[in-house]
Amino acid sequence: MNQFGACAHVPVAGHDKPLGTLLTEAFEISTPSRELIAEVARLSGDAELNHVLENGDRQALDAWLRGRDILDLLGMMPKDAMSLPDFISLLKPLQHRAYSIASSPKEHPGSIHLTVATIRYQSHGRARQGVASTFLADRVGEGKTAPIFLSPNRAFRVPENDAAPMIMIGPGTGVAPFRAFLQERRARGAKGRNWLFFGDQHRDRDFLYQDDFAAMQVSGLLTRLDLAFSRDQAEKVYVQHRMRENARELFAWLEDGGYLSVCGDATHMATDVEQALVEIIASEGAMSADDAEAYLDRLRKEKRYARDVY
Ligand SMILES: Cc1cc2nc3c(=O)[nH]c(=O)nc-3n(C[C@H](O)[C@H](O)[C@H](O)COP(=O)(O)OP(=O)(O)OC[C@H]3O[C@@H](n4cnc5c(N)ncnc54)[C@H](O)[C@@H]3O)c2cc1C
Questions:
Q1: Is 176 in the pocket of ligand 1 (CB under 6 A)?
Q2: 247 alpha carbon, distance to own chain's centre
Q3: 123 in ligand 1 pocket by Cβ < 6 Å?
């Protein structure tokens, strides 16, 4: 608002809410639309941005945008180059954010638990915050409400077969649905074995649901818990390393009719985990890499290998 010399309560032509409400409730104020980027490139004449846009290379644009938000774009233009109504017309509507449900309605009827990582980082000399995660962490306030809707994911569920082994690979916030899966199995009295691979950076501050999982181990619900805290030692250790260390047993669980689910980071983790899986199947099943891929495809078709990655 400073950028336009405007304050929160000013009306905006064509809208029935004041500027402050539009920016906090109606429009995306972090990620710019393609139209806004193009207009800023035109009005600023910025050589680097124009070069990126002229090449039409999506990856180059994403790399340029990484760590930049709408405020950075506004700062690139001469003052008064864009009017406030023009700026508003170039914003995207605020998009919903998806969060996995981390509890079973059988154990927590009438409520749902979420596991939200708060996005905060420094970039180009300014502190940045994720829109929705910091809304939940800092702004919504206790006892207040936030609009939500439920979006069922029919391809990512607890196995229907209560006797089948269940292997869960969920580092970071990827662990959320698996806490729900475990609660669901406990509530159903499912007898199948359960194995969770969890990891993050540091054990002392990132071990999500440590007490829950400890209690589940004591009760016997969680048969195995393998942990990988990447920054607690000199060499980085991730969940896929723990999978490789336990290759024989992991393959045995699959051969026993196990269901394997992966949740969390799509950029690196999901690919690294799948690579490890193919290697484990190939080595433990004494197969070629092609046959191991086919084995994994069969699991996918039988709905015994599912991913929910983001
Ligand atoms: C199916 C699904 C399930 C999900 N489940 C969960 C869940 O259970 N828990 C959870 O926490 N999240 C989950 N997410 C992610 C969640 O939807 C949001 O994307 C996340 O909370 C960030 O939203 P935000 O509004 O806070 O950040 P935004 O305002 O949307 O900003 C996020 C953007 O900031 C940028 N950014 C972030 N970190 C950096 C950095 N270090 N340097 C530079 N740029 C950076 C990236 O461009 C990123 O896209 C899930 C997503 C999907 C699709």
A1: yes
A2: 27
A3: yes
For residue 100 and ligand 1, the question of a CB distance below 6 A is answered with yes
Distance 132 CA to ligand 1 centre (A): 8
| Atom in ligand 1 nearest the alpha carbon of residue 135 | 26
Q: Look up the pTM and report it.
A: 0.94
Per-residue pLDDT in tens (0 to 9) along the chain, 310 residues:
778 888 999 999 899 999 999 999 999 999 999 999 999 999 999 999 999 999 988 999 999 999 999 999 999 999 899 999 999 999 999 999 999 999 999 999 999 999 999 999 999 999 999 999 999 999 998 899 999 999 999 999 999 999 999 999 999 999 999 999 999 999 999 999 999 999 999 999 999 999 999 999 999 999 999 999 999 999 999 999 999 999 999 999 999 999 999 999 999 999 999 999 999 999 999 999 999 999 999 999 999 999 999 9
**CA 278 to the chain's CA centroid:** 24
Integer Cα distance of 34 and 92 in angstroms:
9
Q: Is 99 in the pocket of ligand 1 (CB under 6 A)?
A: yes
Nearest CA to ligand 1 atom 7: 99
Residue bearing the CA closest to ligand 1, atom 13: 99
**Domains of the chain, CATH where assigned:** 1-95 (1.20.990.10), 166-309 (3.40.50.80)
Query: What long-range pairs does 134-138 form, CB within 8 A, spacing at least 24?
Result: none
Q: What phi, psi does 50 have (nearest 5°)?
A: -65, -35
